[in-house]
Specification:
The complex is a heterotrimer of chains A (450), B (304) and C (433). Chain A is mostly helical and 450 residues long. Chain A contains 16 helices and 2 strands. Chain B is of the alpha/beta class. Chain B has helices spanning 2-22, 30-40, 95-101, 132-138, 153-164, 170-183, 187-190, 203-215, 233-246, 259-265, 283-288, 293-299; strands at 47-48, 55-66, 69-80, 84-88, 112-120, 123-124, 139-142, 221-225, 251-255, 268-273, 276-282. In chain B, strands 1-11-10-4-9-8-7 form a 7-stranded mixed beta sheet, sandwiched between helices. In chain B, helix 5 (153-164) packs parallel to helix 8. The chains are: A mainly alpha (450), B alpha/beta (304), C mainly alpha (433).
Chain lengths: 450, 304, 433
């Protein structure tokens, strides 16, 4: 339809000025009149579809639920959710528990018919809107009408919308995490969560079960996260830094041409591969090593996960430091060399101090990555929330717990699943602060030498 | 470093080529064209006297290549004790390249190759076995743009002595710093702010700080690569006075764009053109009675 | 120069000389430290690839038995009607058992029969069924067919499990071992190309498990990501570089984009879970949702790369177009964007490669389930390649270690190919202005 109105609009614009011969008296090229008409025809319809799709499902579900017999409806939210799922499956012709199928047959039929009528209403509305839009635009198509400017305004508006997606994403993350976290804090107090020393999120299946209330003190998780990130940074920072120094100050172009791509490969390896590698190779290696030294090493030790995570971060640190070191002006090096400094003296006493703010910024970004890293710790770190600083023991991290709490069957209202969002909130806020601060430091550092 | 270094080398090389290609079009007279041709010949004999009475450094048959481009052709020149040698010539003529040979700063450019016989007190400094660190401690250098380290004024000056272990205790170090700053004429301005960053000084002060930093190592020769080109006239005048004072103790080679500056501060002047040393003589002679047409054209302002 | 000066210089020289040996030692140490750091990276890449390839390359072959299968009408088609329903539910295992038994006549007794049966993959009978249903003419004939062996047999034949450690890693009994040897001596055991691995979905039996489902899930998710993130990313980059006014709002947008690029991926998963699944009610485990989440995640990468590409288009191009009377929008759409396209594409491919390797957010939205069917649309439940690696890595069977490594190899091959394309594109279209 939009295409048709493009053609019609274009024709009409030419016709209004009396054919191709006098095409110059149009303000804009004919195709812009076409675009203008097409936009008026298509855009309202598109917006309608978007709005419709996001709302129709809940409206229809609401009506279906309302039609259900009282006995089925009177259950909790979670059960209702299952019920609705069953109805939808039934409506889609999928297999559902036969007993259920009888009860819900009517509801499923209602659902289907509502869906069908919704589709019809939607199509009709779109056609009507399109026609109305086209007719409106047709009345506006006059030779001196600034079609191009109008079309460009729409284009610019679309660009603005695209650029604000990032903001919406951030706001979306914050709101969704915050909303669920607040529900969590209604059940568990904020201070208990932040400062509690025990973490065991098992909630009872029955109210009378022994030890029914889970403990949600997140300190062991924070400690575990810090321990593993600390080990990772302990590995990644010196190696990454020295690699960058070697590549920028010492290596010949040929060596650089080999090592840099290899580091890029290292950076491009998915974290799940690192996790697999940690669990398959590194952890047994460490355990054997520990046994031969007479040490007890847990098979999911913090050390194994931390080491592999450190390796993952090496290329990240080295490429950030590489940029930062390159930004130090050559004049600084010349000044130092001219005084008779060796390369290492120049690096240690001039370049690194000069690059320090940038390096710190890069290191903070790396810390933020280590804290937020998920797959390696999920696969190679433990689930038990031990409060320990011994790297040979198993610890758990914030991300591991988020995954464990949310993967698999879940009832959405339990403190257990909501706790994951509370952890997500902490994770998001901490990394946000680290990132904003680090990016600011790095930017200031660059401006200094530009 | 890699990027900037290569870029610099390319810049230098390109500048040379640029000059080579443009040179013929710059002619204003047939005579100049002939002179260019004579310069372009393979064997070129430098006019004037290349030797000095009491040479600290001697350079013979020095050639420099940046990759495939040759930047310096068979240069012979002595630098005498307690004397200022000014190196002048149009942009890209090789004078900076030459001065960078004297303390092996060309080593920092990957593509640069320096050949020839360069001696400091009779010691070959261009051989593989030469200790570059030691050489640079003896031959200091001041750069075009003031480049103080991002450290305090004190630390800037103390940097060299600390590296080389010249001071055995804090008092000695303090003394070296003070003497150096005094000699560089910066003491009065800087003594109350020694712990403040050197980058906070004005341009002229920064350049004097760099000079203080250089003399803190007690070198035998000081090389200056257009030390005043980034400074205003007043700061320039101060630096020129300073050079004059320093020449009592050091052998100095200074690259300059300004002929007036060469005339004011130097005893001898060397004129470079297209990578060749055209003429070197007493400064007076160069400016009053040059032996080569190109030198004359340059000092009288016909090109450059 | 005074004698004092001379002495001072000589003293300096002496001290410098004295310090040299120590300083050069420290120089060498530092340099060595740098070199070994760089080499450590190389060594690690080598170690990782050797481990993964060493563990995984055998998975591309699968042990199979050559058996003469008699499609006994009495077993599979007693009515002689070739009724599809009947054929589909017939006992094909019996055919295989009979064939095996005819090879190994000394097997007797129920226990031994059961052990014999276990040599064959549990899925082998369904292969036979599919063949019969597809070609009814087979009924009554005898064919020499390659029948997939059980994973334990596979591991033994490949040498991943030692022959002489029964009870430990080896789960096969001594008599099973004997039968395998007998079949092998007969030339009836062979490692053949593992077609299942590339054509099947997930399975509890390692020898039946394949990556097709996961690969297709990844493909669907990436398509969704591409369709959403690429145009949006370019549009946002164009706006920020060409049209945006310099004000605090735009500063905020920029800080935001840079920050989003560094937000942990799992947080995007939380967003997907609570917004796309719980709020909009989109289906769980669907590549559609996975793609949506991944596109939000890759958007910053694409925006940043596209902005760099647009920045590298020299202002002279814009000035020339504007000078000819083009509007700003025309200038950008007709000149700047086409010139920046290779850079944008490179950024997009790198973003896609990152999205392909990402698994944490997919765990959050349920793309981590045991799914046998290969997904047919973007709303079917599916997993993704990295998630498949994650799932298999958790399985206890030795054969899954091999398959996990092989799936990793496939994943890495895709990533390397994508990066290679990006580098090729960059080199081919890189323009110096």
């Amino acid at each position: 339809m939009a295409v048709a109105s493009f053609v019609l609009g274009r024709r009409r614009s030419i016709a209004t000025v009396g054919g191709y011969s006098s095409i110059r008296s149009l303000h804009s090229l004919p195709k812009y009149y076409g675009y203008y008409a097409a936009i008026w025809c298509g855009l309202p319809g598109l917006l309608l579809v978007a709005a419709w799709l996001s709302l129709s499902d809940s409206v229809i579900t609401g009506r279906v639920v309302a039609s259900l017999p009282e006995a089925l409806r009177g259950s909790s939210d979670a059960q209702l959710g299952l019920l609705v799922n069953d109805i939808k499956n039934l409506a889609a012709g999928q297999f559902v528990n036969p007993n259920r199928a009888v009860e819900l047959g009517a509801a499923a039929e209602l659902y289907n018919s509502l869906q069908a009528s919704a589709r019809w209403i939607l199509s009709g509305l779109i056609v009507a809107l399109g026609l109305a839009g086209f007719l409106y635009s047709a009345t506006r198509l006059q030779p001196d009408f600034r079609a191009r400017n109008k079309v460009e305004t729409v284009i610019k508006a679309a660009l603005v919308v695209a650029s604000t997606i990032a903001i919406f994403t951030t706001v979306g993350i914050l709101l969704s995490v915050l909303f669920e976290a607040l529900r969590f804090f209604q059940k568990i107090s904020f201070t208990e969560f932040l400062f509690g020393l025990t973490w065991s999120p098992q909630t009872a299946l029955r109210a009378d079960q022994v030890g029914s209330s889970g403990a949600f003190g997140a300190i062991p998780l924070f400690a575990g996260t810090l321990l593993i990130s600390g080990i990772a940074m302990f590995v990644a920072l010196p190696i990454g830094l020295m690699t960058a120094v070697y590549l920028t100050e010492y290596a010949s172009p040929r060596i650089r041409a080999v090592i840099k791509p290899v580091l890029e490969i290292l950076a491009g390896i998915p974290t799940v591969v690192y996790g697999f590698f940690a669990a398959l190779t590194v952890a047994p290696l460490l355990r054997d090593l520990g046994t031969s030294l007479g040490l007890e090493v847990a098979s999911e030790s913090a050390l194994g996960a931390g080491l592999v995570m450190g390796v993952m971060i090496i290329p990240f640190v080295s490429s950030l430091t590489d940029d930062v070191i390159n930004a130090v002006p050559q004049a600084m090096r010349d000044g130092s060399y001219a005084l008779g400094a060796t390369k290492s003296e120049t690096v240690k006493r001039v370049i690194l101090p000069a690059a320090l703010p940038g390096i710190v910024g890069g290191a903070l970004l790396a810390v933020s990555r280590a804290i937020g890293e998920t797959m390696i710790v999920v696969m190679a770190a433990g689930l038990a929330a031990n409060l320990t600083v011994n790297p040979l023991q198993a610890v758990t991290t914030v991300t591991v717990q988020i995954v464990t709490l949310l993967v698999g069957d879940q009832e959405f209202d339990s403190a257990k699943t909501l706790a994951a969002f509370a952890l997500g909130l902490v994770l998001f806020v901490v990394t946000l602060i680290l990132n904003v601060f680090a990016l600011h430091v790095v930017r200031k550092y660059r401006e200094q030498y530009e | 470093m890699s990027g900037s270094q290569t870029a610099e080398a390319v810049d230098l090389a390109e500048e040379e080529q640029l000059d080579n290609s443009r040179a013929p079009r710059m002619d204003q007279s047939q005579a100049v064209a002939e002179d260019f041709q004579s310069v372009a010949q393979e064997e070129y004999e430098t006019h004037g006297t290349v030797t000095a009475e009491d040479p600290v450094m001697t350079v013979r048959d020095c050639n420099v290549f940046y990759g495939d481009a040759q930047a310096l052709f068979d240069v012979n020149l002595d630098i005498g004790r307690n004397q200022v040698v000014a190196l002048i010539g149009p942009s890209g003529c090789g004078k900076s390249t030459f001065i960078r040979c004297l303390n092996r700063m060309n080593d920092t450019i990957d593509t640069a190759v320096v050949t020839g016989d360069i001696r400091l007190y009779g010691e070959d400094i261009n051989s593989k076995s030469t200790d570059v660190v030691l050489l640079r401690a003896r031959v200091g250098m001041v750069f075009q743009k003031p480049n103080p380290f991002p450290k305090s004024i004190f630390e800037n000056v103390a940097y060299g002595p600390r590296l080389h272990g010249l001071a055995s205790n804090r008092a000695e170090l303090d003394e070296i710093v003070e003497t150096s700053l005094r000699r560089a004429g910066l003491w009065e301005e800087a003594k109350d702010r020694l712990d403040q960053p050197g980058t906070g000084l004005s341009g002229g002060q920064q350049q004097r700080l760099c000079i203080a930093r250089t003399i803190a190592v007690n070198p035998e020769v000081i090389l200056m690569d257009e030390p005043c080109s980034a400074l205003d006239p007043i700061a320039t005048a101060r630096i020129e006075d300073l050079i004059d004072e320093l020449s009592e103790n050091y052998a100095i080679a200074i690259v300059t764009h300004s002929m007036q500056q060469a005339a004011r501060v130097s005893q001898r002047t060397a004129y470079f053109h297209l990578g060749k040393l055209i003429e070197v003589d007493e400064t007076n002679r160069i400016f009053t009675n040059p032996g080569h047409k190109l030198t004359e054209d340059y000092v009288t302002g016909r090109f450059g | 120069m005074t004698a004092d000066e001379k002495r001072a210089q000589e003293e300096t020289l002496r001290r410098v000389r004295a310090s040299l040996a120590r300083r050069y030692r420290s120089e060498r140490r530092f340099r060595l430290f740098g070199l070994s750091s760089a080499l450590l990276g190389l060594a690690f890449v080598a170690f990782l690839f050797v481990t993964i390839i060493g563990n995984g390359y055998t998975a591309f072959w699968q042990t199979q038995f050559k058996l003469d299968i008699y499609f006994d009408p009495a077993v599979i088609d007693p009515d002689g009607q070739a009724d599809p329903q009947q054929l589909a539910s017939a006992n094909y295992r019996a055919l295989i058992r009979d064939a095996l038994q005819s090879e190994l006549p000394d097997v007797s007794g129920r226990r031994e029969m059961r052990e014999l049966n276990r040599l064959i993959s549990a899925g082998a009978e369904f292969d036979l069924r599919d063949e019969v249903v597809a070609n009814v003419a087979l009924i009554g004939s005898t064919r020499e067919l390659w029948i997939t062996a059980d994973d334990e047999v596979d591991m033994l034949v490949k040498g991943h499990v030692e022959r002489d450690e029964q009870g430990g890693a080896r789960r096969l009994s001594d008599s099973q071992l004997r039968w395998i040897d007998a079949l092998a001596a007969d030339g009836r055991v062979e490692q053949r190309f593992n077609v299942n691995f590339f054509t099947r979905g997930d399975s509890r039996d390692p020898e039946q498990a394949g990556i097709a489902g996961a690969a297709k899930g990844s493909l669907f998710a990436l398509l969704v990501t591409l369709v959403i993130a690429f145009p949006l990313g370019i549009a946002a980059a164009v706006y920020l570089e060409e049209f945006a006014p310099r004000n605090r709002w735009i500063d905020l947008v920029e800080v935001n984009i840079n920050n989003l690029a560094a937000v942990p991926s799992i947080v995007f998963g939380l967003l997907g879970l609570s917004v796309f699944l719980n709020f909009f009610g989109l289906p769980r485990s669907a590549p559609l949702v996975g793609g949506l989440v991944l596109s939000l995640m890759t958007l910053p990468t694409i925006i940043i790369a596209s902005r760099a590409a647009i920045k590298s288009v020299p202002p002279s191009v814009r000035e020339a177009a504007l000078g000819l009377g083009a509007s700003q929008v025309q200038t950008v759409l007709h000149h700047v964007v086409p010139l920046a396209m290779p850079g944008m594409l490179t950024g997009a491919i790198i973003g896609m490669a990152r999205a392909l390797g990402e698994s944490a957010p997919l765990l959050m939205i349920g793309m981590v389930a045991f799914i046998v069917e290969v997904p047919q649309s973007i709303t079917d439940p599916a997993t993704a390649l990295p998630v498949q690696v994650f799932l298999w890595a958790d399985s206890p069977e030795r054969a899954f270690v091999e398959r996990t490594s092989a799936a990793t190899m496939v994943l890495l091959a895709f990533l390397l190919a994508m990066n290679a394309v990006a580098i090729w594109l960059r080199n081919k279209f890189e323009r110096r202005w």
